[in-house]
Design a protein that fits this description.
single chain, alpha/beta, six-stranded mixed β-sheet
Length: 159
């Protein structure tokens, strides 16, 4: 098996408490619903991550907490550089993946969306909880599929 990377944007966050910083914002009810459903879909497709690199923001931590119950035991590394990351930071994380590993990188827009654009040459919206599945082929990353909650689970999941 080749190296595989899942680039994922955190699930939908809550904006109701203006006293919280952006970094402290939790998930809203839709985010809490979408995160485990996206984990189930990844498992259904055979994309169970072995390792996770995640932003240390509250909403990414909560997204992962709701997903890892479906994944079971996985290695998790919170990285401050994945909070409002640059595209090169995401590419560096992708490059850190190992042979026969499925790496989940859980971060934020706009970098997630821009990284997908850089890798595919096409614009693909990455709403909250969206996942882009990449497989390394030679020296390039090929996009296998992009999963978006609205498309998978219906209109009530818009971002």
């Amino acid at each position: 098996m080749s190296r595989r990377v899942i680039l994922m944007r955190h699930a939908k966050s809550d904006w109701n408490d203006s006293a919280l910083s952006d970094h402290q914002r939790p998930l809203n009810p839709r985010g809490k619903r979408d995160a485990p459903r996206m984990a189930e879909k990844l498992l259904e497709l055979g994309w169970k991550p072995n390792r996770v690199l995640t932003s240390d923001s509250q909403r990414t931590v909560e997204t992962l907490d709701l997903m890892k119950g479906k994944f079971g035991e996985i290695s998790i590394e919170p990285l401050t550089e994945l909070y409002h990351p640059t595209v090169p930071a995401l590419f560096s994380c992708m490059a850190s993946s190992q042979l026969e590993e499925t790496l989940l990188i859980l971060a934020h827009n706009p970098a997630t969306e821009l990284a997908v654009y850089e890798l595919t040459g096409e614009y693909h919206p990455m709403p909250t909880a969206a996942c882009a599945l990449f497989i390394e082929q030679g020296d390039t990353w090929m996009c296998q599929q992009i999963l978006r909650p609205k498309e998978l689970f219906g209109k009530g999941n818009q971002s």
